[in-house]
Specification:
Layout: H1 2-25, E1 35-38, E2 43-45, E3 49-50, E4 55-64, E5 70-79, E6 82-91, E7 102-111, E8 116-122, E9 131-137
Parallel strand pairs: 3-9, 6-8
Antiparallel strand pairs: 1-6, 2-4, 4-7, 5-6, 8-9
Length: about 140
């Protein structure tokens, strides 16, 4: 019985050591060169009407305070006829971000499969109210 317990204890230590090595050998996302954050949206310019299955473009602008901010992505969620749109930017804290304040923009594309009135809510950080645009699809 004593021999069985010592073999069991050694086996447990080997399994624990192999788990620890496996965790250590997995690459950790150490990319600290880019930080992603949600941006405030200051302007939205786009059409008021569209046809069914027509892709329309909205020019979306955010305040920009240096040369390190770049467009990353739009994230959307839709409930019935309302689409919430969030804009995300990536910044590199290791770059020199000095420079004059300018405005940046990117294009958000939207396509409706059915006729109707669609509400596009461009939302700021922490779901702060942003810009609401209405699109009529015929």
């Amino acid at each position: 019985m004593n021999k069985f317990l010592s073999v069991f204890a050694i086996l447990i230590m080997l399994v624990a050591a192999s788990c620890q090595k496996a965790e250590m050998s997995n690459p950790v996302n150490a990319d600290t060169s880019s930080l992603v954050k949600q941006a405030s949206i200051i302007t939205v310019n786009g059409p008021l009407t569209a046809s069914v299955n027509q892709e329309v473009s909205f020019n979306v602008s955010w305040p920009y305070t240096g040369n390190c901010e770049k467009f990353k992505s739009f994230k959307t969620s839709t409930l019935k006829d309302t689409t919430h749109i969030k804009l995300f930017i990536a910044t590199n804290p290791h770059e020199d971000c000095t420079g004059k304040e300018v405005k940046r923009s990117s294009v958000y594309k939207f396509k409706a499969a059915n006729p109707g009135t669609y509400i596009l809510k461009f939302v700021g950080p922490d779901n702060k109210p942003g810009i609401i645009d209405t699109l009529r699809v015929k």
